[in-house]
Amino acid sequence: MSFSTFTRLSARRMALAATRTRVLPQVMRKANSFTPITRSFASSTIRFNQQRQAVSEILKSELKLETESSAAPEEVETPALFQDFLDKYGFEIVATPGKNDAHIFKKTEAGETVNVYFDVAQVANLPYDDAMTEDVTNEKNNLEEEDFDSIADNFANVNVVVSKDTDGSSVAFDLLMNLQEGSFYVDSVTPFASKDAALNESAEAELSRELSYHGPPFSNLDEELQETLEIYLSSRGINEELSSFISAYSEFKENNEYIQWLENMKKFFN
Prior knowledge:
MAM33, Similar to Saccharomyces cerevisiae YIL070C MAM33 Acidic protein of the mitochondrial matrix involved in oxidative phosphorylation, MAM33_sf
């Protein structure tokens, strides 16, 4: 497993006085004009219902396809594969139904809690350009800025927060994960005085974390410090097997969320 750094809207009033009751011929003409409008409205209602029904039928078809696919034997066995990884490294999954965010955590013998966060939609839809990755390896110094933007699209963000159970002090590692390599690249390392400061999900806490000093670029750190931090992460289960788990679990959860999305859409258009 390898670690490195990756450098990325007057309402106009209606003149009601203009319509006067003494102008009877106009009133009658307007009254007579209502009939075709009623017919048009009825016709429009039918069309709207047909359009809604068309959407409903497509949703039903897609839902049937997805549920049948998910019931395939290989899909049924997938959760067991997750459990193998969870049992081996002591991680537990935190249920997050209806959300893109995924969260797993573990307790260590050193009195720490390791939290891992990732976006299943980002991971499940992660593109991979094999040729671009080869360019990065062989011609890194010759790449243009737009090339680096393209490369960044091939990585998923993973956030690891390790907290001491004694005083709650924490360190957050912002990582970039490359699924093809099964590797994690360290982007930044940020210490926090408390677990709440590191993990609180309020808007204020998130803003505070964004404004925090995240240290120098990881590659600018002393090489020995880089290596020891990488080894520390590996010892906490941040390795190639975690990358494989994140990839498989993201596909599984994203598909389940999609099926539920189809169910909710179907209820509306029925």
